[in-house]
# Entry
Amino acid sequence: MFMLKEFKEFALKGNVMDLAVGVIIGGAFGKIVTSLVNDVLMPLISMLTGGINFSDLKIVLKAADPSKEIAEVAFKYGAFIQNVIDFLIIAFCIFMMVKAMNKLSRKKEEVVEEAPAGPTQEEILTDIKNILNDIKEKN
# Structure
């Protein structure tokens, strides 16, 4: 019973919920980037490279044999190139988001730093000491 209560406290903490939302949004964002690469960028790159479809690029290590039901064994480096492009786009987008967040947090820090500083503990104690001395001298 105690473990269930502890798990409930853990699962309902703000950080865990933020992480869950981030994972869900990240998954959706990954699909968008994959579509961007596969449906927009790769056709443009293919057009620039003379019609090469990167997803079809491969080195056949062993040809398929339909009579023996043996599948083709191939080194599919074209799919790897697409995945590298996916990664670079995602990494660049995350870099831009972190850069924007850092810029916003710096502005918040500057506002906090501009707030007037109150008296230090030593100044307060010195004032109290002076007040007590004044009271002592009057008596």
About this structure: The radius of gyration is 32 Å.
